[in-house]
């Protein structure tokens, strides 16, 4: 990767942690809200990081970027979250160069999602890349890679059935409620937090429960009112949170707070209460379980709910992997071209210098020298020569690096860069 003429730094890395090894608490330590993301990007710029894309969802936090050493990226993450390097080392993964590229493809295509085929991550990747571009932290390589991953994701979504059927964290929440609560349509449901998962859960609740006793509360009331308007639901002020919890049979928490917003002290009623915490970091304190009448279920448990839909999706993994390999091959072909483009350009300039010198000589020797015709012939010859070299360098049977060194040496294009 260091020879591809795409970065001042040596390597492309993907560093991060996910649901696979990090539980909800640890993922919460490394979660990045919008403010933290901006702080991280600012610090990266100050540290002369050339290109960087940061994603943080309920299931994973990752940094894709160029660095001399992965610790540069790990330090950025730890400096802007509550996580420590020691915690990171215990649960994290580090991918380098082609492995980092392959990892982004799997993540963006929903194959690495906690719920197979969940394409929520691709929209996060788009937003993150846009933010990096805005801050001057997106080079040609990273932008091209993100676009390739988006292309693969689109193809998998349209050409396979890996995302067919209703299955997501929000849908799993409703499934859980149905399985564990009787007469759901008559229960009082309170949704606290109206982010993406909160909105989706609300939609699933309305669609599947036929419940007319759903109340929304959000710190910013106008956001709750926008969602409530779609489904004709009740909205209450944040100040009424404790009172509304006392009236509820089911509490769904989906806020984006960095610390728990619900604990045992806010629960005053003695009747049974089911709490679903769909937040990362966790927004419900574990101490609510000290109350005998309260049942607490977290996002990770809901994500483990598998059904026939998820099993059916697994059959489409091979087809998705074929698409990934096709798009990745196109990307690698572009990358290989980028590798020798500067040398071909330098060769063309060198041949043009030869042609200019020779044309000057012939011009002085011949009184009836045909300027236009001579220039046309020389340009055509230069183009043919450079095309031959380019085709040779694209040949899989030759060593591109050795060929580049030989071309540079023969035509004295530049000092050898073999060890760079």
From TrEMBL:
<feature type="domain" description="Quinate/shikimate 5-dehydrogenase/glutamyl-tRNA reductase">
    <location>
        <begin position="179"/>
        <end position="305"/>
    </location>
</feature>
<feature type="site" description="Important for activity">
    <location>
        <position position="103"/>
    </location>
</feature>
<comment type="similarity">
    <text>Belongs to the glutamyl-tRNA reductase family.</text>
</comment>
<feature type="binding site">
    <location>
        <begin position="193"/>
        <end position="198"/>
    </location>
    <ligand>
        <name>NADP(+)</name>
    </ligand>
</feature>
<dbReference type="Pfam" id="PF01488">
    <property type="entry name" value="Shikimate_DH"/>
</dbReference>
<feature type="binding site">
    <location>
        <begin position="57"/>
        <end position="60"/>
    </location>
    <ligand>
        <name>substrate</name>
    </ligand>
</feature>
<comment type="function">
    <text>Catalyzes the NADPH-dependent reduction of glutamyl-tRNA(Glu) to glutamate 1-semialdehyde (GSA).</text>
</comment>
<feature type="binding site">
    <location>
        <position position="113"/>
    </location>
    <ligand>
        <name>substrate</name>
    </ligand>
</feature>
<feature type="domain" description="Glutamyl-tRNA reductase N-terminal">
    <location>
        <begin position="15"/>
        <end position="160"/>
    </location>
</feature>
<keyword id="KW-0521">NADP</keyword>
<keyword id="KW-0627">Porphyrin biosynthesis</keyword>
<protein>
    <recommendedName>
        <fullName>Glutamyl-tRNA reductase</fullName>
        <ecNumber>1.2.1.70</ecNumber>
    </recommendedName>
</protein>
<dbReference type="InterPro" id="IPR036291">
    <property type="entry name" value="NAD(P)-bd_dom_sf"/>
</dbReference>
<feature type="binding site">
    <location>
        <begin position="118"/>
        <end position="120"/>
    </location>
    <ligand>
        <name>substrate</name>
    </ligand>
</feature>
<dbReference type="Pfam" id="PF00745">
    <property type="entry name" value="GlutR_dimer"/>
</dbReference>
<dbReference type="InterPro" id="IPR015895">
    <property type="entry name" value="4pyrrol_synth_GluRdtase_N"/>
</dbReference>
<dbReference type="InterPro" id="IPR000343">
    <property type="entry name" value="4pyrrol_synth_GluRdtase"/>
</dbReference>
<dbReference type="InterPro" id="IPR006151">
    <property type="entry name" value="Shikm_DH/Glu-tRNA_Rdtase"/>
</dbReference>
<feature type="domain" description="Tetrapyrrole biosynthesis glutamyl-tRNA reductase dimerisation">
    <location>
        <begin position="320"/>
        <end position="413"/>
    </location>
</feature>
<comment type="subunit">
    <text>Homodimer.</text>
</comment>
<dbReference type="InterPro" id="IPR018214">
    <property type="entry name" value="GluRdtase_CS"/>
</dbReference>
<feature type="active site" description="Nucleophile">
    <location>
        <position position="58"/>
    </location>
</feature>
<comment type="pathway">
    <text>Porphyrin-containing compound metabolism; protoporphyrin-IX biosynthesis; 5-aminolevulinate from L-glutamyl-tRNA(Glu): step 1/2.</text>
</comment>
<dbReference type="InterPro" id="IPR036453">
    <property type="entry name" value="GluRdtase_dimer_dom_sf"/>
</dbReference>
<feature type="binding site">
    <location>
        <position position="124"/>
    </location>
    <ligand>
        <name>substrate</name>
    </ligand>
</feature>
<keyword id="KW-0560">Oxidoreductase</keyword>
<dbReference type="InterPro" id="IPR036343">
    <property type="entry name" value="GluRdtase_N_sf"/>
</dbReference>
<dbReference type="InterPro" id="IPR015896">
    <property type="entry name" value="4pyrrol_synth_GluRdtase_dimer"/>
</dbReference>
<dbReference type="Pfam" id="PF05201">
    <property type="entry name" value="GlutR_N"/>
</dbReference>
